[in-house]
Amino acid sequence: MKTSGVLVTVLAVTTTTNAWGWNYYGNPGYNQGGNPGYNQRVSSGSSSSSSSSSSSSSSGGSSSSSSSSSSSSSGGGSSSSSSSSSSSSSSGGSSSSSSSSSSSSSSGGGQNDGWSWEMEYQMSQNYHVNSRQSTDVIGDLYNMSDKDMSSVGKTVKLILNGDRNGQPQDTVTHYDSCPSKGTPECAKDTCCIWKYIADEMKEAMTGTAGRCNGLARGAIRLGFHDAGTYSKKLNAGGADGSIVTFGECEMRSINKGLEEICHQTRVWFDKYKDFGISMADLIQMGANVATVVCPLGPRVRSFVGRKDATTESPVDTMPIHTWSADQLITLFEDKTISAQGLVALVGAHTTSQQRYAYPDKALWPQDSTPGVWDVLFYGETLNPNAPSRILKFPSDVHLSEDSRSKNVFSFYADQRWGHALWNEGYAREYVRLSLLGVNNINSLTDCTKVLPGWSGNTWSNPDQKYMDEYMQGKGNRDYASSPLRYGDKIPGY
Ligand code: HEM
C-alpha cells in the first residue's frame, strides 16, 4: 500500500472567462466542435443550433424533422455519417458511430485551430442555455452571508448561481495514492476512506466492453431517487439516505428496479460504516463515480458530510414516466430545478435500459448506446426515425416538445457542441440535486479528487456493428440486451 498521500494533477486545464464572465475550458479539443475522435454520430451540416431548436416544435410524439435534418440534433439519424462510416446502418436513424470518429471533425469549421466565430457562437449558446438553468441558493447557504461561508460554501454557492462549473476545473486531479485504510493518517484526511470506496465502486460498475453496467445505471438513478424526494413546499426530503435506510427502495413502487443497487449500497455501507461515513454520502458518491465511469461522463464535484435521515422521505414527490411536461416542470420547480435544469438531468437516460416501466420490453434502452454518456439520447428522442429497439419514455418526449424545454433539448442534441454543453449543465444541476435538503452545506468537504479520472472526449464501442444491428431490430431480444446490461462486449454471431 502506498502511503504518500499525494494529490496529483495530471492535466491542469486552463480556464478562460468570456465576455459574460462564463468560465469554459481552454484545452483544445474540449468544448469545441472539432475534437478529433469524438466518437458520436456526426452530421455534416453546419449546425445552427438556434435554428434547429426554433424549428423543433412539433405535435405528436416527435420533433419536427426539419430540425433533425438541418442540424446534428438528429442524433442517431445523422445521414452524413454514412460518408464517414463503413458500417452505417441507418434505416432507423442510427448510423454507426464506430467509424465516425475519423469524421467527427467534419462539421465544417470550428476546428481546433484557435479562436473562430464558431467558438464565439458556441460560447454565446452555452451562456444562453446554461444561464437559464436553476439558480436558487439552497439549504443553510440560503440565509448565510458570504463572509460567513467556508470555501466549500462559497464554491457551492457559485455553482448554484451558475457562476462556476459543476465539474472541477481540471478533469483528472486525483489521489495518486493515499494512506492505508485504517491508519491514523487515513483517518485524518476526510477524503481518504472515500478513495477506497470510489475505487471499489468503479471496479463493480464497469463491464468488459468498457461501458458502465446496470449497477452504475442503478447508482445514478438511486442518487436521483434519494435526493429527488426534496420538496421546497413541504420542507422535507432530499439527499439523506432514507431511500436505503428506511427501505423505501423496496417499499415504494416508484423505486422499482433499484433493489440491486440498494442491496449493494447496504453491503458497502456495512463494510465502511465504521469509518464514519453516512448513507446519504455513500449514495451520492455512488452516483458520481458511476457517471464518470460511463465513457464520456463528466466528473461531477463530490462533497461529503451529509447527515442521514431520521424520518422517511415524503411520498408522491417523484416524477412518473407518463406525465405531461407541465406536471414534470411543476414538480421540479418545487425542487428548485428549472425546466432547463430538468432537461440536463434527464439526459442521464442516455445510459438507461429500462426494465419495469414497460416489462414486455425489459432491457430496451433509451438510446442506441446504453452505458455510454453521449448525447444520442437527446437526438434520438427528437428523431421520429430512431432505431426500432429504442424505447422512449413519454415524459422525455414531452420535455423534448414543450416550449419551456425543447430548445435546450435540441442544443444538447447537437453533435458538435452538445456534449460539452450538456456535461457542464448536468454537472451543475447534479451538484444542486445532490445537495437538496442538506442543511450543512457550509461544513461539507470537497472530495472530488477521489473520483476516477475523466475518460476523455473520445470513445469507440468495440462491438459497434452488433450494437447497431441490434438497435435496428436484428437478432432476438436476448442476443445483446444482456451483455449491454453488464457493460460487456456483444459476442459476434
Ligand atoms: C422526468 C423525470 C424522470 C422520469 C419520469 C424518469 C423515469 C424513469 C424510468 C421509468 C426509468 C426506468 C426504470 C425501470 O423500469 O427500470 C428510469 C431509468 C433511469 N433513470 Fe430516470 N426518470 C426521470 C429523471 C431522471 C433523472 C433526473 C435521473 C438522474 C439524474 C435519472 C436517471 C435514470 C437512470 C440512470 C435510469 C436507468 C436505470 C437502469 O437502467 O437500471 N432519471 N427513469
TrEMBL record:
The protein's required cofactors: Ca(2+); heme b
Q: Where does the Plant heme peroxidase family profile domain start and stop, copy by copy? A: 277-410
Q: What is the UniProt remark on how the cofactor binds and its stoichiometry?
A: Binds 2 calcium ions per subunit. Binds 1 heme b (iron(II)-protoporphyrin IX) group per subunit.
- Provide the binding site for heme b: H349
Cysteines joined through disulfide linkages: C178-C192, C191-C447, C212-C294
Q: Where is the active site?
A: H225
Which segments carry the region annotation Disordered?
33-115
Q: What is its EC class? A: oxidoreductase
One Pfam family, short name please? Answer: peroxidase
- Give the E.C. number(s): 1.11.1.-
- Which positions are annotated as binding Ca(2+) 1? D226, G238, D240, S242
Query: InterPro entries per the record?
Result: Ccp1-like, Haem_peroxidase, Haem_peroxidase_sf, Ligninase, Peroxidases_AS
Q: Which one of the record's GO molecular function terms can you name? A: heme binding
In this chain, the site described as Transition state stabilizer is at R221
User: Which Gene Ontology terms describe the biological processes this protein takes part in?
Assistant: cellular response to oxidative stress; hydrogen peroxide catabolic process; response to reactive oxygen species
Give the UniProt keywords, A-Z: Calcium, Disulfide bond, Glycoprotein, Heme, Iron, Metal-binding, Oxidoreductase, Peroxidase, Signal
Q: Where is the composition biased (Low complexity)?
A: 37-106
Position of the signal peptide: 1-19
Annotated residues that bind Ca(2+) 2 are located at T350, D367, T369, D374
Annotated family: Belongs to the peroxidase family. Ligninase subfamily.
Q: What is this protein called?
A: Peroxidase
What is the organism of origin for this protein? [Torrubiella] hemipterigena
